[in-house]
Amino acid sequence: MPHIGTPSGGRGRAGRTNTKGPGTMKIPGKPSLSTKNWGAMNVAKARKAALAAAGLALMGSAAALHASAPLPPDEEGEPITLTAPKANWVYVDRGFTVPGTVIYDSDTGKMLGLVEGSWLSDLAIDPNGKAYYVAETMWTKGFRGTRQDMITVYDANSLFLKTEIAMPGRILIGSRKHNFVLNDEGKTAYVYNLDPASSVNVVDLAKGKFVKKIELPGCASLMPIHGVGFSALCSDGSLATVTASAAKPVITRSTPFFSATNDPIFDNFGYDQAKKQAVFLTYTGQVYTAQLGATPTISEPFTIQAAAGVTPADTKPLDVHWYPGGQQSMALHLASGHAFVLMHMGEYWTHKEAGTEVWELDVAAKKVVKRIPLEEPADHVAVTQEANPKLIVSGDSGDLYILDAETGEEKHKLEKSGGGTIRTAEAK
Amino acid sequence: MKTFNPDAMGEKLLRRFAGGTSRRGILSRLGLALVAAPAFPLLPVSRASAAKPDRSPEAKTTFARNAQSTDDTKCTYWRYCAIDGSLCSCCGGTLNKCPPGSEHSPVSWVGTCINPDDGRAYLIAYRDCCGKAYCMKCNCDGTDRETQLYVPQLNNDVIWCFGTNSMEYHCSTAVLVGTA
Questions:
Q1: Cα dihedral B35→B41→B42→B44 (10° resolution)
Q2: How far are the Cα atoms of A17, A23, A421, B146 from residue A20, in angstroms, in the given order?
Q3: Which terminal residue of chain A, N or C, has fewer Cβ atoms less than 10 Å from its own Cβ?
Q4: Which member of B72, B78, B109, B144 is catalytic?
């Protein structure tokens, strides 16, 4: 069963946002579109209130209170809408106990909206900014009845339902970034399925149709490759590449390069889809980079510990080292090629332990350029794709922290707002 | 760190499974899942280590060194070395039986845990109980030899309610299959 981010995650608590201070005061002159809408409404209300107050002052007696005109009823307004996704927005899955993905503005710390989703659903963001896609599973009678698997499409502006695309099954796990991915500029979706044989659903999002199912024995965690299909990690320690668009998909496997049982690669790895470059991290801290394509090339590894000037870790019991860990242990900032990794001190097989520090790794230079201590250990980390990125981390308490990636300074702390996978929008 | 032999695990589980279910659909998909088994590391290293396992404290994980055999409602109970979720023994069930009204999944993920009393390693099948809401008591997350999604039978995040009437996760049991 999935990792439980917020064991006590009570119903309805996750949406509350208690920022450290008023967000608008912290970042003056940078209102988001949604705060502009609110601003306009508030100005109108304030004007009315001011008029009423002025009227009261003129009357000047208690009896006059009743004589004044009552407040007019609120007018029916247009519903709040959003812009296309922005680079400073973050998408926080609420975890195992509370479904749905909340959108936050990382500048203000304010909640912008909720993308609906069923238990253990997965979100994908349309790279064209028009839609949010949710791969999800439900049954005709709650958890009973006929099972239905689908991609549900929501309008990115209104967050209203646009359509549903039926498909045959998907894995129930949650907490994974690479089970539902988009390819071909958002025209194709790949959905991983485990029943308990493993396969991939190919869905044409442009036509709104399920296309085919590709059996993918022994492999999982999908990296879409434009013009090719996708790659996946496999239990024999290889990387499989699947020509998904071909009439008869062909699966080729690289030479095995890692041990899937003794030093596995975290399946929440980093991937730059535009550059087709993956950054893989193993339990002991080995870092591989892979240039994907019809014939992928995989680099020789280096260790994140050596890159930080500390002793590399191993798989021996009783040996205490710095290890990477958590449920979502790595985030990749695409423009800089820097990876942000949750690290903790411990023994081997503590790969789910929350990190006490975030290490910023310049992957190309093989150098840890910064170590950021965390106020609370975190098992999820994400990074915004802004020029001056922010780190989004959450841990056992379920509190979500927004940090300046440069200084480590806490910008916002949102109580009971974390739990599941954290995604960020790519800059447009 | 001593490795283990997932191939032997698969065989043991399959024998047990073959004797205990008649669901054709799930069987065919499970058969397909096992097609992936040759991709498992049948490496010389795992065979060599299987010959004479080292059970000294120096060879044990943090979990195994601190494991106990008296209280199966605690995360430190030895069989829970790779469990994830609510312990059924806290939810009206037992170590290996489901709470009333929930259904035992015929398939599962597995772990290899060391019994502190006899020093032997045992194969444990973490069979989920399904068909009721999440129990949310005694939540544990043992991670000994727990791996990632591309080795699903060793991954404890997957909802393992396959071949049951409902896929709603309630709690997890730790069924002893045999010596590892």
A1: 170
A2: 10, 8, 23, 38
A3: C
A4: B109
Question: Do both A289 and A316 map to the same domain?
Answer: yes
- B146 vs A147: CB contact, 8 Å cut-off? no
Amino acid at A160: F
Residue A88 lies inside a defined structural domain of this protein: no
DSSP B100-157: TT-EE-S--EEEEEE-TTT--EEEEEEPEEESS----SSEEE--TT---TTSGGG-SS
Asked if B41's CB is within 8 angstroms of A217's CB, the reply is: no
**The predicted structure's pLDDT at residue A22:** 37
Higher pLDDT, B173 or B57: B173
Asked if the structure places residue A309 within a domain, the reply is yes
Task: Output the six-digit token pair for B44.
Answer: 């010389």
Q: How far is B178 from chain A (nearest CA, A)?
A: 21
pLDDT digits (tens, 9 = 90+) for A115-164: 999 999 999 999 999 999 999 999 999 999 999 999 999 999 999 999 99
pLDDT bin (cut points 50, 70, 90) of residue B7 is low
pLDDT in tens, B37-57: 443 433 333 444 445 567 677
Name the helix (H) or strand (E) containing B27.
helix B24-35
Mean pLDDT (whole number) for B65-74: 97
Of A7, A220, A259, the CB nearest to B41: A259
Tell me the three state secondary structure of residue A409.
Answer: coil
| CA–CA distance, A73 with A52 (Å, rounded to integer) | 14
Name the residue among A215, A190, A186 with its Cα closest to residue A202.
Answer: A190
Which helix (H) or strand (E) segment holds residue A413: the answer is strand A410-414
Q: Which residues of A306-338 are buried (b: 16+ CB within 10 A; e: fewer)?
A: ebbebebbbbebeeebbbbbbbbbbbbbbebbb
Query: Is the CB of A141 inside 8 Å of chain B's CB atoms?
Result: no
Q: Cis bond leading into A264, ω under 30°?
A: no
For residue A328, the domain's CATH number is 2.130.10.10
Sign (positive or negative) of CA dihedral B168, B173, B177, B180 = positive
Taking CA atoms, what residue in A is nearest to B54?
A317
pTM score? 0.85
If chain A, 428 residues long, is cut into consecutive pieces of 10 residues, what is the mean pLDDT of each piece? 43 35 36 39 51 49 70 92 97 94 98 97 97 97 96 98 98 95 97 97 98 97 97 98 93 98 97 98 98 97 98 95 98 98 98 98 98 98 98 96 98 95 84
Whether A227 and A302 share a structural domain: no
Q: Residue A222's beta-bridge partner residues?
A: A232
Quote the pLDDT of residue B37. 44
Q: Answer yes or no: B78 catalytic.
A: no
Q: What is the pLDDT of residue A264?
A: 98
What is the pLDDT at residue A426?
83
Q: Which CATH number fits domain B54-179: 3.40.50.880, 1.20.1440.20, 3.90.1150.10, 2.60.30.10?
A: 2.60.30.10
What number is the ipTM of this complex? 0.84
- Whether the CB-CB separation of A152 and A397 falls below 8 Å is answered with no
